[in-house]
Amino acid sequence: MAIALLKQNFQDWITQQWVILFGEKIIASNNQWLLGPFGKTEGIGVKFITQLAKNEQLIIDKKQVNKGLLHSINLLNLPAKERNKLSKDVIDFYENTSNYNFDLKVKWNPVFKVFGILLKILFSNRIEQLNIPLSNSKESTTLKSEIIYLIDKKTKKVKRTIWLRTFQKSKQVVYSGIYETCKIPNGKSCLKAIFPLPNGSATVILEPTVGPNGALILNSSGRKIGDSGFYFLLKDSKGNLWTKFIRSFKDQLIVSSENEKITAIQTLTLWNLRVLQFKYNIEKQHKIPASAIQTDITPID
Fold it and tell me: What pLDDT sits at residue 299?
């Protein structure tokens, strides 16, 4: 039987062994659409960005203006009819994400709040990732949102796009994820969000469609490996790759615009029951500091 890496935190070992026991071993060359960087065992959060840049011999570009999760919305390969319906404000948000400010409200289903408590105690604080508020928000909480590019030293092209979201006051990391597009086996182009975990990742594949009012709807609602959905990935002690597709867990994100105000509503469900809902109020910065326009490129030794 395959064994997870032994020299790591016990909680991490248990979850990884669960993936091995109930998941599937996969071959990297046959699953490039799913793969992405893994975290190390000694912590994620902001540390992961410098680790990844060093490992892949990239330089960090922290310039915070005109940087998007997507270089172009066309990377989603939406049908022409849907692409033409898509809100121009939503397109600008995805192509220039760094030009926007965020406020967040959280609404838990009380039945599932215990999972949030366990997540925070066992993982979030320690690995500096997924620090989700445990109480429902009556007022919005301000987030600091950073788009960080990792750039190839020779070609000067962007190789990795990282979206780092922290609470403005506490500085805790809500999400630190790598964003890119991928083409799943049925040929559909999807948005892929990779959240590094110790010796692995939690990866969400989101299939895009356009709503009747020009909203971008991103769904992870597949039924099997190869579909959109939520995947755990890891390497065992011998370097073999494993994945566990969580069919019962769904993620839907609806990004819409009305009167030039952008709202994003993210709903997480388990066994068709709502677990948690995030509501983001997204506002474009009308005045961008001059310092943000200057490129801040950090070389990795």
Answer: 44
C-alpha dist (Å) from residue 194 to 35, 36, 163, 211, 249: 9, 7, 10, 25, 16
Distance CA 233, CA 192 (A): 14
Taking only the tens place, the pLDDT of each residue in 61-119 is: 877 688 999 999 999 999 999 999 999 999 999 999 999 988 888 888 888 777 777 76
Tokens found for residue 99: 């030009």
Residues 6 or more apart whose CB falls under 8 angstroms from that of 36 comprise 178, 180, 192, 194, 201, 203, 233
Going along the chain, which residue ranges are E strands? 24-26, 58-61, 100-108, 141-152, 158-167, 173-183, 189-197, 200-210, 216-220, 229-235, 241-245, 249-258, 261-270, 273-284, 297-298
Q: Which residue has the tokens 């750039």?
A: 151
- 3-class DSSP assignment, residue 175: strand
Separation CA 268–CA 263 (nearest Å): 17
The pair of structure tokens assigned to 61 is 């570009």
Q: Where are the extended beta strands (E) located within 78-136?
A: 100-108
